[in-house]
């Protein structure tokens, strides 16, 4: 596991739940700093007014007062394109899942997740993974199946489809390499070929393409 220290922001309007998640994050050695906000507007204001405010990961609720999480995600990505955003919400319906991912979220967790699972997701997403609650992962895998069926011209090989499924299930490249007993360098090669064939640059981009083309 990476020893890099992370800066994390938590945007959640329910004080008790926010405090619970914040406590779990602060207890983890990998988390160097944590700021929490009760609304998205405050987080956006800080990004604009404090040039040094550059979190590595943002955890955000969707059902926020004022600017919703779905509205805030693209605004946060516009200001900080490299940030990893993980949704933390009670909503598990497909439209919200795919809208969040299409807007730039790299992970999607339900609030039924334990504090430990949430903290692990923060570390995982920074390592290049896409943490997803199991039910959400099934939606995503289904979406990729539709992409493969619809986009026959991409001609993904069996190995490419296998790697894509593992990535969609939230594994990082190192874990995929271990699963398939191949090198991380080989996984990188396959990922480049997958993205080239799907004409995207990221896992989120592939989901976004599926949404735009009405495949999900």
Task: Characterize the structure shown.
- With 216 residues, the protein is an alpha/beta fold.
- The chain contains 10 helices and 5 strands; from the N terminus they run E-H-E-H-E-H-E-H-E-H-H-H-H-H-H.
- The chain folds into 2 domains: 6-130, Rossmann fold (3-Layer(aba) Sandwich), CATH 3.40.50; 136-212, Winged helix-like DNA-binding domain superfamily/Winged helix DNA-binding domain (Arc Repressor Mutant, subunit A).
- Helices cover 54% and strands 12% of the residues.
- A 5-stranded parallel sheet has the order 2-1-3-4-5, sandwiched between helices.
- Helix 4 (94-103) links the parallel strand 4 and strand 5 (107-110).
- The relative contact order is 0.11.
- The modification 4-aspartylphosphate is found at residue 61.
- Pfam families: GerE, Response_reg.
Summarize the structure.
With 216 residues, this protein is of the alpha/beta class.
Task: Show the helix and strand layout.
Blueprint: E1 6-11, H1 15-26, E2 31-37, H2 40-49, E3 57-60, H3 69-79, E4 84-89, H4 94-103, E5 107-110, H5 115-126, H6 134-150, H7 158-168, H8 173-180, H9 184-198, H10 203-212
Parallel strand pairs: 1-2, 1-3, 3-4, 4-5
Domain Response regulatory: 7-126
Domain HTH luxR-type: 149-214
Protein name: Response regulator transcription factor
What structural keywords apply?
alpha/beta; 54% helix; Arc Repressor Mutant, subunit A; Rossmann fold; 10 helices; 5-stranded parallel sheet; 216 residues; 5 strands
């Amino acid at each position: 596991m990476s020893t890099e220290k992370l800066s994390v922001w938590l945007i959640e309007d329910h004080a008790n739940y926010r405090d619970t998640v914040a406590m779990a994050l602060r207890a983890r050695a990998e988390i160097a700093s944590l700021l929490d906000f009760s609304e998205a507007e405050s987080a956006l204001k800080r990004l604009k007014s404090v040039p040094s405010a550059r979190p590595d990961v943002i955890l955000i609720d969707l059902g926020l007062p004022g600017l919703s999480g779905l509205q805030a995600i693209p605004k946060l990505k516009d200001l900080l394109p490299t940030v990893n955003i993980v949704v933390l919400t009670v909503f598990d319906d497909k439209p919200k899942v795919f809208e969040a991912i299409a807007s730039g979220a790299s992970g999607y967790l339900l609030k039924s997740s334990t504090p430990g699972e949430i903290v692990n997701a923060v570390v995982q997403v920074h390592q290049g993974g896409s943490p997803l609650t199991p039910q959400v992962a099934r939606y995503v895998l289904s979406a990729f199946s539709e992409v493969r069926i619809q986009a026959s011209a991409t001609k993904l090989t069996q190995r490419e489809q296998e790697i894509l499924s593992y990535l969609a299930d939230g594994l990082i490249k190192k874990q995929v390499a271990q699963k398939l007993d191949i090198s991380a360098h080989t996984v990188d090669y396959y990922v480049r070929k997958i993205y080239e064939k799907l004409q995207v640059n990221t896992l989120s981009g592939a989901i976004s393409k599926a949404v735009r083309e009405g495949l999900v």
